[in-house]
Amino acid sequence: MAKQKLFVFMIDALCETDINYMRTLKNFGWMLENGALVKEMFPVYPSFTYPCHVSIMTGCYPDKHGIPHNEKVQAGVYPVEWYTSRSLVKKKFLAEYAKEKGYSTCLLNWPVSAGADVDINLPMCVPMGYNGDNPRQFFEGVSSQEVLDRYFWKYGHLVRNINPMMCSSLDEFTNAVAPDIIRDYGQPDVMFVKMCDLDSVRHKLGVDNETAKKQLMKHDCELGVLMESIRRYGDFEHTNFVVMGDHGQTDVPRVLNFNRVFQEAGLQTLDENGKLAAFDAYCHSTGGSGWVELRDPNDKALYERVYQLLLNAKDSGKYGLGYVFTKEEAKERFHLTGPFDFIIEGETPMSFSFDPAAPLFQKTAPGDYKTSPGSHGGLPWLDHRTTFFGCGPAFKKGASIDKANLVDEAPTMAKILGIEMEDIDGHCLDELLNENI
């Protein structure tokens, strides 16, 4: 039996509602016509890009893999460092299992993969918004040196983010490098490629608009180029193509700055410049939810005071809160641990501010991804979900599952490759696969 290959095309912020439109596009449509589908794939909580990508790659929830947020949040500090290093992840990547089994492996623009043990790696590691003259500095020491030397002189300028008309220079860089890798190295047996621009469009404009449709059309063309590269330089017949998203997005009309509530209660103070001076309770933003951090979680009186304040705020209806979870409840219900003592959510989708000096309520506006018109990071049943479909020799044509979880993707892809992953949360979606796999 010929060796199975795996090619994964990740589209950030792909929603389950995109499927009908994708059926009308050439390459997505071919896959959906001839492959298998999970209609609604539930992201992990919070539905942020980095925790979701690590869950996809490890088959584990955040409490097990150790990446709870995009950012290493600090009270009153913004911007902060993002999670980028593979060394921070507590579980092994599917791509690393594949390399151990003798597959050639490649990760392009994959979050939290800097320094991952794969054959070809150009990770997502340039700070968001960077437009300096030396983006290569961020790749040094955490990427494949030969690949960096071979391509960065030609394509590195695309990562500088100097074209104001583009959503994400990272996509342009990825689209340039990926076909060259397939041609120059031969098709890697296991290859993950991530695209960002649909997420950027939806943050700025909301979920359902003509620009988002045009972006999906562009992603379809990009996938077509990579498929053609594999036809020319690889083994198309034995390649299993997968298209997936990491999370959906949801239209959000307003932003709540719950730190103002803490300030009114005497639990937080700002200095004359509007910066955090001191706090007993602080609300971090995860976009669609708020993480409440206590200065001293072992102070039982403070804990009870803040917990009661949160419950009263929810019951009052004044702020539009619908949910309050303790740290223990978050772990039990969502497999989430992190630098918080409580989590708060809107009754209907809303965003939470990252600026303690902002007004209590604001309208969403393009800018920071957590407070823009399209957002995510909230409860899976409030946010849009994402989707997953695959086509190739391992996938059963016409197979369909209504709902599954993001952590199920890694063990499903692992089975295609004959790999068994250890101590994971997900399970293989056998209904999608042919019996001989």
Q: Please, could you describe this protein's structure?
A:
The protein has 437 residues and is an alpha/beta fold. The protein is 32% helix and 21% strand. It is built from 14 helices and 19 strands. The chain has helices at residues 19-22, 26-34, 49-58, 62-65, 94-100, 136-139, 145-155, 169-185, 197-205, 210-233, 259-264, 300-316, 327-334, 409-416, and strands spanning 5-11, 36-42, 105-111, 120-124, 190-195, 239-245, 250-251, 254-256, 268-270, 276-279, 281-285, 289-294, 321-326, 342-346, 351-352, 361-363, 374-375, 386-391, 400-405. β11 and β12 (289-294) form a beta hairpin. The longest helix is centred in the middle third of the chain and has 24 residues, at 210-233. The model has no long low-confidence stretch (mean pLDDT 95).
The share of residues in extended strands comes to 15-25%
Report helical residue fraction. 25-40%
Instruction: Please report the total strand number as a whole number.
Output: 19
Major sheet characteristics: 8 strands, mixed
Q: Which structural category fits the helices and strands?
A: alpha/beta
Keywords for this entry:
single chain, 437 residues, alpha/beta, four-stranded antiparallel sheet
Question: How are the SSEs placed, and which strands pair?
Answer:
Elements: E1 5-11, H1 19-22, H2 26-34, E2 36-42, H3 49-58, H4 62-65, H5 94-100, E3 105-111, E4 120-124, H6 136-139, H7 145-155, H8 169-185, E5 190-195, H9 197-205, H10 210-233, E6 239-245, E7 250-251, E8 254-256, H11 259-264, E9 268-270, E10 276-279, E11 281-285, E12 289-294, H12 300-316, E13 321-326, H13 327-334, E14 342-346, E15 351-352, E16 361-363, E17 374-375, E18 386-391, E19 400-405, H14 409-416
Parallel strand pairs: 1-5, 1-6, 2-19, 3-4, 3-5, 8-15
Antiparallel strand pairs: 2-18, 6-18, 7-17, 8-16, 9-10, 11-12, 12-14, 13-14
